[in-house]
Amino acid sequence: GAVVSQHPSRVICKSGTSVKIECRSLDFQATTMFWYRQFPKQSLMLMATSNEGSKATYEQGVEKDKFLINHASLTLSTLTVTSAHPEDSSFYICSAPIAGAVNTEAFFGQGTRLTVV
Amino acid sequence: QKEVEQNSGPLSVPEGAIASLNCTYSDRGSQSFFWYRQYSGKSPELIMSIYSNGDKEDGRFTAQLNKASQYVSLLIRDSQPSDSATYLCAVYMDSNYQLIWGAGTKLIIKP
Q: DSSP states of A60-116 as a string?
């Protein structure tokens, strides 16, 4: 089956620094990838839709200047959390659908646990 | 109104019994429905997909879809402690390849 690889799986950073998270589709091309954030005991919250070759689409309330998304190729999307603060500590997950199929399911990366101290 | 609704639980089921998880959705035009399982601290993993009315069975799992009533359910037979997790219902939106997620139901299987 399709595989989406995300790393790092865990990162601890100091407040004010930036963190980059990578999401790669390993055996298929993903023109679209989704970035989610999940706080403890809560469901997935869609942050933004990453589109290859164009600007990302951000959900309401998500700061695009803080969460920079780059989708430079058909197999790689990156999320950079800039000037991270403790409230940005969360579980970040990317997913990629296989476009073109009627019965499209999402394949998820392993997730990144971000802790800002 | 939430587009995909699930009871948050926790739902507690004795080992060996049938666990029944339910999900309702608001978009009548939805065609694709998915159940994901998520263990604590891990990403969701796909368990079942269903696209037509009726039942779909895969091992101990059965997905049921009723488009007229706009609900989809997941039955887990012979529940095992390893089935304890949060189960997420997702409905696919054709227009933007986006899955609309329920909040998830926490399932606890008691030995």
A: TT--TTTEEEEEEETTEEEEEE-S--GGG-EEEEEEEE-TT-SS--EEE---EEEEE
Which residue in B44, B51, B92 is closest to A108 by CB distance?
B44
Burial label for A16, CB within 10 Å (0-12, 13-18, 19+), is exposed
Mutate to test the interface with A, among B35, B43, B105 (most CBs of A within 10 A): B43
CB neighbour class for B111 (10 Å; exposed up to 12, middle 13-18, buried from 19): exposed
pLDDT digits (tens, 9 = 90+) for A55-70: 999 999 999 999 999 9
Q: Average pLDDT of B85-106?
A: 85
Query: Does B45 sit within 8 Å of A105, measured CB to CB?
Result: no
pLDDT average per 10 residues of sequence, chain A (117 residues): 87 97 90 90 88 91 95 93 96 81 72 96
In tens, the pLDDT along B49-94 reads 999 999 999 999 999 999 999 999 999 999 999 999 999 999 987 6
Q: Is B95 on the interface with A (CB under 8 A)?
A: no
Answer whether B41 touches A (CB < 8 Å).
yes
Residue B96 near chain A (CB below 8 Å): yes
Q: Which of B32, B43, B92 is nearest residue A93 as measured by Cβ atoms?
A: B43
